[in-house]
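Ticket #4471: structure output looks truncated?

Reporter: J.K.
Steps to reproduce: submitted the chain below (148 residues) through the standard prediction queue, then opened the result file.
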Amino acid sequence: MSDDKQNRNTKQKSMILEYLKDRQDTHVRAEDIIHDLNEGEERVGKTTVYRVLKSLETEGKIRKYTLSEKSPACYQFSGGHPECRHHYHLMCSECGKLIHFESDGMRQLAEEMMSREDFAVDESKTVFYGYCGECRRKMQNGGEHEDR
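Returned output as attached by the reporter:
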């Protein structure tokens, strides 16, 4: 690979990683990355984005989530959360907000699964889907926005 191509790939990888860092508390789809980055001066192709996302996921810098079988995968920066391996995640199915959740009760349940079934839960990949308080309030109010 030429130095120019290597530098371009490194630059694009850095751009995508920074994009995800800036949005680490929500889920981001590949399409969002492609759209938003292509609004700037630097262009990034679809194939490049998917290749970089796979690479970042393999390196443990991002996590991949699937909201539903009908929706595209989404990604979250995890490099800033090395403790992700030791807690669970709550994801809002409406807005995509990701909440880090620690619980002695959940940890005890994981230990019970290990002792009774010899099954080790991978906490870093355990996500509970539901609705955050803000989205639930919006749904209860018929979708009206609350004045704060």
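Triage note (M.O.): checked the attachment and the full token line is present. The chain has five helices and six strands.
Status: closed, working as intended.
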